TrEMBL record:
Residue ranges annotated for the UPF0302 domain, each copy included: 9-113
Residue ranges of domain IDEAL in the record: 139-175
Pfam family name, one: UPF0302
Name of the protein described by the UniProt record: IDEAL domain-containing protein
Organism of origin: Anaerobacillus alkalidiazotrophicus
Superkingdom of origin organism: Bacteria
Length: 188
C-alpha cells in the first residue's frame, strides 16, 4: 500500500480484473479498456476505497457487487453516463482520476490492496479521533477532580461543626493536594 504505483502495475491489475470479473455495464468495460490504451491516464490514476467528491472519481462494479455498475463523480456532479465520463477524460487527459472498484473478495485481494492509495487520510482521521479522546478524558478527569474538591470542602465543614481538629487538618492537606493537582492539569 505504497504511495506510488507504476502504470504497468495498474495496467496489469485492470487486465486481470477484466479477465476475471463480469461488469454490470458493458460500457464500463469499454471505459477500462480505454484507460488501458492510454499510458498517460494510467499514470494519473489512483485506486481508492472511498469516493472523493471534490475530485474526479469513477466507481465501477462487478455483477456480484451491490453498488451501481458505473458512476462518475466530478466537480460538476454525479453521472451514470459512461460517454460523459469518457468525454471529460478526453478533454483533460492529464488530470488526476480516482477509481473505486467493487467486486467480490476485494478486501482480501492482494493485487487490489497493493494498488490502493496510502491510508494517510485514515491515519489523519485516527489521530484526530485520538486527540478528541485525550481531550475528553482530560475534561472528565478535571470534572471528577472538581467534584472531589467540593466533597472534601463539605467534609471540612462537617469536621469544623464537630470540632474534630485531627480530621480537619487531614482534610485540609487532602484539599491542598487536590487543588495543586487541578492547577497542574489546567496548565498547557
Amino acid at each position: 500500500m505504497g504511495n506510488w504505483v507504476s502504470a504497468t502495475e495498474k495496467s496489469s491489475f485492470l487486465k486481470w480484473f477484466l479477465k476475471h470479473y463480469q461488469l454490470k455495464q458493458r460500457e464500463a468495460r469499454m471505459f477500462l479498456e480505454y484507460l488501458l490504451k492510454k499510458h498517460h491516464i494510467l499514470q494519473n490514476l489512483s485506486f481508492t476505497d472511498k469516493i472523493k467528491y471534490n475530485e474526479k472519481t469513477v466507481v465501477i462494479s462487478s455483477i456480484q457487487a451491490d453498488e451501481p455498475g458505473f458512476v462518475y463523480y466530478s466537480t460538476r456532479g454525479k453521472s451514470e453516463n459512461v460517454s460523459a465520463a469518457l468525454n471529460d477524460l478526453m478533454s483533460n487527459p492529464t488530470g488526476k482520476l480516482n477509481i473505486v472498484l467493487h467486486f467480490q473478495g476485494k478486501q482480501l485481494n492482494y493485487r487490489y490492496l497493493k494498488l490502493l492509495e496510502s491510508k494517510s487520510d485514515s491515519l489523519k482521521t485516527y489521530r484526530q479521533f485520538e486527540q478528541y479522546s485525550k481531550d475528553a478524558d482530560a475534561l472528565i478527569n478535571k470534572v471528577l477532580l472538581e467534584q472531589e474538591i467540593k466533597f472534601i470542602k463539605l467534609l471540612i465543614d462537617e469536621a469544623l461543626d464537630n470540632r474534630d481538629e485531627k480530621e480537619f487538618k487531614r482534610l485540609i492537606l487532602k484539599l491542598q493536594d487536590l487543588e495543586n493537582e487541578l492547577a497542574s492539569k489546567k496548565k498547557p
